Known about the structure:
Layout: H1 6-11, E1 17-19, H2 28-36, E2 41-44, H3 50-63, E3 68-73, H4 79-87, E4 92-96, H5 101-109, E5 113-118, H6 121-129, E6 134-138, E7 144-146, H7 151-162, E8 166-170, H8 176-184, E9 190-192, H9 194-197, H10 206-214, E10 220-223, H11 225-229, E11 239-243, H12 246-251, H13 255-259, H14 262-273, H15 297-316
Parallel strand pairs: 1-9, 2-3, 3-4, 4-5, 5-6, 6-8, 8-9
Antiparallel strand pairs: 7-11, 10-11
Helix pairs in contact: 2-3, 2-15, 4-5, 6-7, 8-15
Amino acid sequence: xxxxxxxxxxxxxxxxxxxxxxxxxxxxxxxxxxxxxxxxxxxxxxxxxxxxxxxxxxxxxxxxxxxxxxxxxxxxxxxxxxxxxxxxxxxxxxxxxxxxxxxxxxxxxxxxxxxxxxxxxxxxxxxxxxxxxxxxxxxxxxxxxxxxxxxxxxxxxxxxxxxxxxxxxxxxxxxxxxxxxxxxxxxxxxxxxxxxxxxxxxxxxxxxxxxxxxxxxxxxxxxxxxxxxxxxxxxxxxxxxxxxxxxxxxxxxxxxxxxxxxxxxxxxxxxxxxxxxxxxxxxxxxxxxxxxxxxxxxxxxxxxxxxxxxxxxxxxxxxx
Length: 320
Ligand SMILES: Cc1cc2nc3c(=O)[nH]c(=O)nc-3n(C[C@H](O)[C@H](O)[C@H](O)COP(=O)(O)O)c2cc1C
């Protein structure tokens, strides 16, 4: 038995598993590994800076002939960057965080599947209005930026709100049980970030990968503080789930004070430049408890799918 869903059918992929387009993490090598494993690899392109993206897409398309995609931050995206990516013929584009309406038609007109990641029901309604092929419902357990809704109740609420549009589930999925839960909730697939961040092919340094292995879900928190410290333009409605660190402990709840402290800000910037885990943002989700090894992403995809199948079979067999 294979896990067949609207996602696998429409994208022509083997498993209902999508690599989250993580900025600074999901480059061409990781996306190719996930696609080669039978999932949908997505490059995290942020605002779409061509200088970074062009070589990553070359890596990706040189390493796989399977379907792949690119994800953007809607609040930062420029139309020219999107137009160039569409010319590269991805199989899917994901838009997250912000208003997707300036870009949705461009993607759909190009005949490319449009995934829109949403963090509340208002965003879910807008995603359907602009024609999303798949709505990605992201719960607050997720690593990186997002909103405040927990995955378990949020996903069925989104499914009820956007049907018949298919929904993918993001936030807290790191093993076959999570993938099975996403499907059991009525999702057409799982969008997985943190688990793939802790893979050999991710763009983060090996030192930061070790931090991911070492820390637990309870060592993460949602915060605006590190965005404030690095002078980021992220819209304030989205906080980020990060691994806690001494800098956060020192400044938690004192964002305004931090903004006025030039010395503290420059100390932060110097630490961030060194990739110092005592200060730098390590975006990661609550699923850290479930990650026990750094490994290759390609083989992981098939294992996640096989474990999910096994989990679903076991749930149906009450005598097992
Ligand atoms: C390190 C990291 C960076 C992320 N960057 C982005 C991004 O640039 N664009 C985006 O749409 N989502 C981003 N996300 C969120 C993911 O799309 C996804 O919602 C999340 O990873 C799912 O939860 P999980 O981390 O528990 O698997 C990021 C997540 C992580 C962990």
